[in-house]
Amino acid sequence: MHRRTLLTAASCTAACSALAPLGNAHAQISDLNDAINKAGRQRMLSQRVGKAWLALSHKADTPTARQVLDQSMALFERQLAELKAFAPSPTIRETYLKLETAWAAHKVTLAAETSSTDNASAMLQADAKVLALAHQGTTQYEAALGKPVGQLVNVAGRQRMLSQRMAKFYLAAMLPVDAATATTEIAKARGEFIAATELLRNAPQATNRIRQELQLADGQWVFFDAALQRMQGGGNVNRQVAEVFVASENLLSSMDRVTGMYAALAA
Question: What does the pLDDT read at residue 61?
Answer without folding.
Answer: 66
